[in-house]
Design brief:
CATH architecture of the largest domain: 2-Layer Sandwich
CATH topology of the largest domain: Dna Ligase, domain 1
Largest sheet: 4 strands, antiparallel
Number of helices: 5
CATH superfamily of the largest domain: ATP-grasp fold, A domain
Strand content: 15-25%
Distance between the termini: 40 Å
Length: 145
């Protein structure tokens, strides 16, 4: 698959959220309407095209658990809020990558997380569980137990 081949070619060990969703969409799995932006001008155009409210997130294959790092803003309702959120997220991003993901806001009752990993003892494994802030909280809880 082209997305995976490109990621491997760049030396990535993980896909960004945007790349992951492109992969899912290629298999017919519905994903949010979204686009990557790198500046305020494209931010405002993209948010307007998608329609408020939107979610704005840092986007990089090197960033996971964005909530804990202050790299996600939800329920952005207008251009002014979008600009503030964009600039705050960019200011908190480390490294040279300064790309954010603007996506439609979808409200639901639950957030889920799914993933794949390769374990030395068990081989390929699928992970599925509570998403959002609970992903990291429960991981810490398990480590304590």
């Amino acid at each position: 698959m082209k997305i995976i081949d490109e990621a491997i070619g760049k030396g990535q060990t993980a896909l960004s959220e945007f790349e992951s969703k492109q992969l899912l969409a290629s298999y017919g799995i519905p994903v949010t309407r979204e686009a990557l932006v790198e500046n305020e001008e494209n931010l405002i155009k993209t948010a307007g095209d998608i329609g408020y409210p939107v979610v704005i997130k840092a986007c990089s294959p090197n960033i996971s658990h964005k909530t804990e790092k202050g790299l996600i803003r939800v329920d952005i309702r207008d251009d002014d809020e979008a600009k503030v959120a964009f600039n705050e997220i960019i200011a908190h991003m480390n490294g040279n990558e300064k790309t954010v993901l603007v996506q439609e806001m979808i409200k639901g009752k639950r957030e889920l997380v799914a993933g794949l990993t390769r374990d030395a003892q068990f081989g390929s494994c699928v992970m599925f569980g509570l998403g959002g802030i609970f992903t990291e909280i429960l991981k810490k809880l398990i480590l304590i137990l």
